Amino acid sequence: MKRTNGLLSNSSSLLRLYLIALIFGAIFISLNYLLLPEVDIYAIVRAFAGEEYARIQLPEFRMHHILLTVHILASLGFTLCAAYTLIPMFWSLRSPGHKLIGYVFGIFAVTMVMSGIIISYRLPFSGLRGVVPNVIFGLALIWFYLVAVIHARERRWREHQVNIIRAVFVGLGIVLARLYLYVLVNIFSMQSREAVYWIFWLGSGTNLLIAQMVIIWLQNNSRLKRNLAPTLVPYLSKKSFKRK
User: Fold this and answer.
1) Rounded CA separation 219/15 (Å)
2) What confidence tens digit (pLDDT) does each residue in 132-175 have?
3) Is residue 235 part of a domain?
4) How many domains would you assign to the chain?
């Protein structure tokens, strides 16, 4: 398998660093819930989301421990599959591991989305309106993945790759959501219930916008079209964005 050299200059480096930051942030969030004692989780949640959220929502989480654990483990698996995109040995679309990880990625994505929607419905801290962004972005993630699989079967690699980029960025929007939560509650003094509603729109919405900007940039950068080595994820292979 021939390996292409990564393009690690200028904007491509910033994009890769951004993706790495999202991945490590998502792993950190998952491991906090899985490994830390409850008193430490309470302190972290109170610092980010406020006293009301920590006091009301954490006991509810404990009552739905199995469902929450399934969601967190699926989210962790989704994140690790996204992280594999940074490993050079997987940068070829012909790699045996590429197809396998792709299907595993899909299983984790669907589990993460469906469990997240159920949690938002069973524990509506922001009311039923808080379920709406979870449903919209969750189904969008699944849609991007399914379209990517269809395009891969049709060997339409460019379309496959751009939809995987969208799926990864939407799925990792939870990291930005947590940052937005801290800013809205602690800097803008927004009530926790209102902030929790907005963060899901802002987190995945911002990341989807960034993903689309990345795709447009890659499609229009003349230097990359001449020698389009992997710059962000392995899906951005040499032939991906050539004009048909």
Assistant:
1) 15
2) 999 999 999 999 999 999 998 898 888 888 899 899 999 999 99
3) no
4) 1
Handedness of CA 6, 9, 11, 13 (dihedral sign): positive
In a domain, residue 233? The reply is no
User: Which residues span the domain enclosing 220?
Assistant: 10-226
Asked if the structure places residue 237 within a domain, the reply is: no
Cβ contacts of residue 40 below 8 Å, gap of 6+? none
The more confidently predicted of residues 174 and 9 is 174
12-60: per-residue pLDDT in tens?
A: 677 778 888 999 999 999 999 899 998 999 999 999 999 999 999 999 8
3-state helix, strand, coil in the chain (%, to 5): 80, 0, 20
Asked if residue 2 belongs to a domain, the reply is no
Query: Residues 12, 15, 21, 22: is their CA dihedral positive or negative?
Result: negative
Long-range CB contacts for residues 119-123, cutoff 8 Å, separation at least 24:
119/64, 119/67, 119/68, 119/71, 122/64, 122/67, 123/57, 123/60, 123/61, 123/64
pTM of the predicted protein model:
0.83
